[in-house]
Amino acid sequence: MSLPDFSKLGFAYIKTPYRFVSEFKNGAWDEGVLSGEENLVVNESACVFQYAQTCFEGLKAYTTADGRKVCFRPDLNASRMADSCRRLMMPVFPEDRFVEAVKKTVAANKDYIPPYETGASLYIRPFMIGTSPILAVVPSSEFQFRIYTTPVGPYFKGGVKPLSLRVSGLDRAAPRGTGNIKAGLNYAMSLYVTMDAHEKGFDENVYLDPGTRTYIEETGGANVLFVTKDGKVVTPKSDSILPSITRRSLMYVAKEYLGLETEERRIALDELEDFAECGLCGTAAVIAPVGKITCGDKVVAFPSGMDAMGPVTKKLYDTLRGIQMGTIEAPEGWVVEV
Ligand SMILES: *Cc1c(COP(=O)(O)O)cnc(C)c1O
Fold first, then answer.
1. At what angle do helices 95-108 and 74-87 cross, to 10 degrees?
2. Whose CA is nearest to atom 5 of ligand 1?
3. What is the pTM of this model?
């Protein structure tokens, strides 16, 4: 296979030579193998197809400024996937083995880790599917855990462009109580709402709490951070939000590296106009600045505007990027060599 042009990557699947594949049968995971085969043969009645018994994770491997090949806090992806599996009646792939399998898969595809200068990275997608043919609504008894990798370009490719969001009238997650798992079913339920937002000129939806529809939850694939006018970093507290590893890392950075006050609490829709800055956080962008949020006929424009990152957002971004890239000392265990 010829290597892609790392300077021209977007966010799309490109086949890489190896993926990790492990099967769960008779109550146990096998050892797993690195496979060259990217296609799966799965029964038409598999639980994944009929009842969406599947979940996934997402993280990146990249080259640091001093040339190391690393990934960021893979142990947190392992424990979050274990939580998703438990909620979906899937067997946990042991967390230590998850981290080893991620490293092994990345190492096998190391030529596809883009160099530091490109700002690109190797996206890692672990996922699990229920493979048993079922018809009754019961969990699968057999599963496949797989990790593939694909090189992706930098998020801020054409420069930083703050986003315009809208508050959605529909729920983010499919059934109540599944918003805190990383699963395709939540994404499937967001497709209609997301495409509708795009058609109307918005970049993303902000979802409200399903119970009262008065508190900010998150967007389709990213958590939300706000900066108050006196420089405090606040993020919504809710148990129906997916616990973003980037958000947790940024809150730590805000407090421990930048000496900012931080707070995790419920954030009412009515409070939006009190904030100075807003950003979306996730593995893809670290933080994508938000310039405005529309709710019905009300538009809240943040003082940081539609042209640049707000000053606190920028500091958070630069510090976490510095930690990831090895130019700022990382807390123990955050940056893991593959
Ligand atoms: C993956 C994801 C995020 C971001 O989490 P990170 O661990 O920071 O990448 C946020 N919200 C949802 C719904 C997600 O699926």
1. 120
2. 244
3. 0.96
